[in-house]
Design goal:
Required for efficient ubiquinone (coenzyme Q) biosynthesis. UbiK is probably an accessory factor of Ubi enzymes and facilitates ubiquinone biosynthesis by acting as an assembly factor, a targeting factor, or both. With about 90 residues, the chain is mainly α. About 80% of the residues lie in helices and about 0% in strands. The relative contact order is 0.08.
Length: about 90
């Protein structure tokens, strides 16, 4: 999911923002913050940037195909539209 380096950096920044007296326990706090962040993020329904980009491309292609099919159906409906004599 997330890059472990990013998670470590975030945990380190949070630990370094603690008051000086608590910073002596910085390594332990850093590990605990990292574990807490990891646990919280694991509960979220996140995807990687790569997965997101792939699905965005698939969606774009699908939308293009849908637009072409809608135009084709509209053309077929115009061709098949009943003439005034057929409607009677």
């Amino acid at each position: 999911m997330l890059d472990p380096k990013q998670l470590d950096d975030l945990a380190q920044r949070l630990a370094s923002a603690m008051p000086k007296g608590i910073q002596m326990l910085q390594e332990d706090i850093g590990r605990n913050l990292r574990a807490s962040l990891e646990s919280g993020l694991d509960k979220l329904d996140l995807v990687t940037r790569e997965e997101f980009d792939v699905q965005s491309a698939v969606l774009a292609r699908t939308r293009e195909k849908l637009a072409l099919l809608e135009a084709r159906i509209a053309d077929l409906e115009r061709v098949r539209a009943p003439t005034p004599t057929e409607a009677d």
